[in-house]
Design a protein that fits this description.
By secondary structure, the protein is an alpha/beta fold. Helix content is 36%, strand content 25%. The protein contains eleven helices and twelve strands. α4 (65-68) links the parallel β3 (55-61) and β4 (77-83).
């Protein structure tokens, strides 16, 4: 979230007033540090331990691990400002569902530092000395790299497909359009790369799509933690929704380093496909597509 947007949200939603309405004069335990900062601003009736509290308050529930570490029982109410769409804990009073990274006004400049500290801890955990010359700048470089290779989580960077009316240039095209390219992504199970080649085809109906934009869309969907099975589906869902072709197909052949460099340590490719419309319905169309892949 951009800081200016966050400040506007912080003011207009009236966090302090909302909290006072939810908590009243009940005893509140605020989880450090953001929970405590906000609770102090709201002048809640704070207690020193969770056992003394009627309400457990925190700023955000994401995975739920932090708040569950307080060994909550059913007698405690849970109040938070924000929850993520995937938050697993039920029975929570919250102000808003947020899928983005929330940065409060007093945290300006801290987010990047916290990310770099995380990388430093990872280096320490594998037995490295983060202060040795070759690693001093590594946390900074990794955080910078993350912004690039995980840009798929930023909806503002999602490419807009360039679409043309079929026939506007005097040619109403009703044959297969075929394209290939490379892809690179990150396995969500072990957070190591998988990469390979993709083969995309569609038969236009009323719209033609700019083929370079298809490549950019594939790159965008690859730029997050993925599994190859979901990747082919997500890409075709977007394309099909935008141009409504007579049919479309995508095959991805990927080498997964989680298989090659660890575990069974075997070479090989994983092939996933998603075939729709006339590619599924007509054997001749499907065979034409597969023959282009195997050339």
């Amino acid at each position: 979230m951009r800081q200016s947007e966050n400040e506007i949200t912080y003011i207009t939603l009236g966090i302090v007033e909302w909290l006072q309405r939810q908590c009243g004069n009940k005893k509140v335990y605020a989880i450090p540090k953001n929970g405590l900062i906000i609770a102090l601003m709201a002048k809640l009736n704070l207690v020193e331990t969770p056992e003394q509290a009627d309400i457990i308050f925190d700023d955000l529930i994401d995975s739920g691990k932090t708040i569950l570490s307080y060994n909550l029982d059913s007698s405690k109410d849970i109040v938070v400002l924000f929850v993520k769409p995937w938050t697993p804990i039920s029975g929570v009073t919250f102000m808003e569902v947020r899928s983005d990274w929330v940065t409060f006004p007093w945290e300006v400049g801290e987010g990047k530092g916290d990310q770099e500290k995380t990388i430093t801890r990872m280096l320490e955990q594998i037995g490295e000395n983060p202060n040795r010359q070759g690693l001093i700048e590594t946390p900074k470089r990794v955080v910078k790299m993350w912004k690039e290779i995980f840009r798929g989580y930023d909806l503002e960077q999602k490419p807009k497909l360039t679409v043309f009316e079929n026939g506007q240039d005097g040619v109403n095209y009703d044959q297969m359009i075929f394209d290939t390219g490379k892809f690179y992504s990150q396995c969500e199970h072990h957070m190591v790369p998988f990469f390979g080649e993709y083969y995309f085809a569609y038969i236009p109906n009323k719209k033609i799509v700019g083929i370079s934009k298809v490549a950019r869309l594939i790159d965008y969907h690859c730029a997050k933690l993925q599994i190859q099975e979901r990747l082919v589906k997500d890409i075709l869902d977007d394309i099909e929704k935008e141009i409504q072709p007579l049919g479309c197909a995508l095959v991805m052949k990927g080498t997964h380093l989680c298989k090659v460099m660890r575990g069974v340590r075997k070479e090989g490719q994983m092939v996933t496909s998603d075939i729709r419309g006339v590619f599924r319905e007509k054997d001749s169309t499907r065979q034409e597509f597969l023959s282009l892949i195997n050339k």
